[in-house]
Amino acid sequence: MRFLFLLMFVLGTVSVSGQSDLFDKVTSRSMGEGQVNIKQSPAIEKLMTDFVRSNKSSSGVEGYRIQLYSGTGNNTKQEAQDVRTKLLSLFPNENVFVEYNAPFMRVRVGAFRHKHEALPLLSKLKTSFPSCYIVRDASISFREF
Q1: Domains held by the chain: number
Q2: 48 plus 72 within the same structural domain
Q3: What is d(CA 61, CA 95) in angstroms, rounded to the nearest whole number?
Q4: 41 dihedral zone (left: phi>0; alpha: psi -120 to 50; beta)
Q5: What is the DSSP letter of 142?
Q6: In this predicted model, what pLDDT tens digit does every residue of 36-47 receive, in sequence order?
Q7: What region holds the SPOR domain (predicted)?
């Protein structure tokens, strides 16, 4: 049973660009390589194909960022830019995201897959931004990790 889950994980991470069948990539044979034969029910093959298709269609993964600012009102755009400028002057290597999602303007920093990965940066930021906190963000792209 563990082998099946491991196989599903490995096959789920295989890039299938240009391949009509997910399992063609695994079972294809090149000069000097061995041959892999996969015997399984068509339901498993369909499940894996659907899994890969749904992962490709999603815009990102759920992860965590640190929120430095959130506000509404007339001056929020300028306030968000001020927070961004202050952050970049103190931490020039960090990725800063200024987002507008009506009616909120937000400033967030970082891209972390797990919450505990954000804790060291959070403790550094607390001295300059005492009200910052970790938030979930579902729009983190794979390239940001």
Answers
A1: 2
A2: no
A3: 17
A4: beta
A5: G
A6: 777 888 888 888
A7: 62-136
